[in-house]
């Protein structure tokens, strides 16, 4: 006899499994389990409906995971599902993702940050942004920084200079190089200048106190294009936290490490398109 401590739902689920494995008659099983036939058929229909719903839900989760290339954790998957019209709890999403081996495994990589500060080599600008990382005007406040990637198992370095719009959180421009020289940083700045339309207000670009941003060439380029310069305080990464946060997300979610320079550059390009157009901020 099945345990009386089990609910009717659990007992019927056990009966269905038993019938799939043996040739016992239903009437004999129901008599032994002390379950009415009507109760059995009620829960059989209910369990079938639940299985169908779960099957649809799992497929929706698989589609989300595929779209985001396995970069999405269960909480973000839950948000996506709710936006699609599903009424589901994050605990159930976590369970289904565990059962179907869909959990995100990208958030394990760590990489040393690139340090471009070499002391005061030029002009240090005032912190005009002052952690006010909110704007309702595109191109009003821009953030920039340089980061490095260790590729080919640490034997080679790839450097990336990036400019972000505070309003849209979009990556406006970036440049990639094997060496963190001045031209490489100016390349991303020039791309940004080309992208800025005519505005009724001035643009401010914020950076840390890295040597690139103290350089006369950088300052001249900003002056020529009527762009304000802003700098973080010395050694204070929170003064440029959205940019730092983007680099952290990029390094956690993107495949890289043992790829060649060209392969890594392509992966970065693909990811930035994904970040700008698909990933929810």
From TrEMBL:
GO biological process: DNA integration
Span of domain Integrase catalytic: 134-281
MF annotations from Gene Ontology: nucleic acid binding
InterPro entries named in the record: HTH-like_dom, Integrase_cat-core, RNaseH-like_sf, RNaseH_sf, Transpos_IS3, Transposase_IS3/IS150/IS904
Listed Gene3D superfamilies: Ribonuclease H-like superfamily/Ribonuclease H
SUPFAM superfamilies: Ribonuclease H-like
Pfam families from the UniProt entry: HTH_21, rve, rve_2
Top-level division of the source organism's lineage: Bacteria
Function: Involved in the transposition of the insertion sequence.
UniProt protein name: IS3 family transposase
Species assigned in the record: Macrococcus hajekii
């Amino acid at each position: 006899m099945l345990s009386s401590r089990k609910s009717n739902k659990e007992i019927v689920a056990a009966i269905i499994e038993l019938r799939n494995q043996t040739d016992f008659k239903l009437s004999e099983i129901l008599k032994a389990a002390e379950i009415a036939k009507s109760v059995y058929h009620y829960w059989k229909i209910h369990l079938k409906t639940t299985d169908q719903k779960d099957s649809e839900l799992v497929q929706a989760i698989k589609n989300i995971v595929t779209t985001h290339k396995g970069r999405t954790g269960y909480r973000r998957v839950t948000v996506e599902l709710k936006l699609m019209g599903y009424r589901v709890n994050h605990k159930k999403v976590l369970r289904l993702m565990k059962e179907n081996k869909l959990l995100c495994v990208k958030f394990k990589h760590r990489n040393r940050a690139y340090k471009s500060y070499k002391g005061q080599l030029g002009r240090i600008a005032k912190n005009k942004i002052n952690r006010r990382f909110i704007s309702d005007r595109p191109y009003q406040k821009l953030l920039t920084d340089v980061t490095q990637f260790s590729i080919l198992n640490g034997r080679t370095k790839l450097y990336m200079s990036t400019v972000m719009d505070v309003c849209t959180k979009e990556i406006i421009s970036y440049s990639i190089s094997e060496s963190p020289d001045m031209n490489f940083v100016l390349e991303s700045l020039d791309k940004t200048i080309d992208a800025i339309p005519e505005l009724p207000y001035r643009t401010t670009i914020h950076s840390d106190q890295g040597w690139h941003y103290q350089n006369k060439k950088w300052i001249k380029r900003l002056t020529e294009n009527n762009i304000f310069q802003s700098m973080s305080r010395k050694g204070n990464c929170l003064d440029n936290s959205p940019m730092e946060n983007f680099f952290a997300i990029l390094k956690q979610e993107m495949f890289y490490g043992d790829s060649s320079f060209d392969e890594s550059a392509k992966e970065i390009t693909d990811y930035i398109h994904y970040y700008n157009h698909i990933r929810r901020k």
